[in-house]
From TrEMBL:
Residues 1-104 form the Pollen allergen Poa p IX/Phl p VI domain. Signal peptide: none annotated. SUPFAM superfamilies: Group V grass pollen allergen. Belongs to the Poa p IX/Phl p VI allergen family. CDD domains: Allergen_V_VI. Pfam families: Pollen_allerg_2 (PF01620). This is Phl p6 IgE binding. Gene3D superfamilies: Group V grass pollen allergen.
């Protein structure tokens, strides 16, 4: 579905942003991830608005959960908190279309 494709795009953007932190000192990982991911996040949300508007509130929840976790983490834990919460929240909404697609037996 279009929703699943957009979730895959968000995941790919997130992984690409994470890759930008590979050679960055731990203290700078969160800032680097955030800078790289902000650009693709805006593009992904714009795509969702035009192609799958029902996905926008779900993506907002994913982004908000991750940023909230990072905001409340100690400076040295911000990167890990963001990655953990974003990954888990995205995994949960990625399963949603599959669950709703299941039809009961006749």
């Amino acid at each position: 579905t279009e929703e699943q494709k957009l979730i895959e795009d968000v995941n790919a953007s997130f992984r690409a942003a994470m890759a930008t932190t590979a050679n960055v000192p731990p203290a700078d990982k969160y800032k680097t991830l955030e800078a790289a991911f902000t650009v693709s996040s805006k593009r992904n949300l714009a795509d969702a608005v035009s192609k799958a508007p029902q996905l926008v509130p779900k993506l907002d929840e994913v982004y908000n959960a991750a940023y909230n976790a990072a905001d409340h983490a100690a400076p040295e834990d911000k990167y890990e908190a963001f990655v953990l919460h974003f990954s888990e929240a995205l995994r949960i909404i990625a399963g949603t279309p599959e669950v709703h697609a299941v039809k009961p037996g006749a």
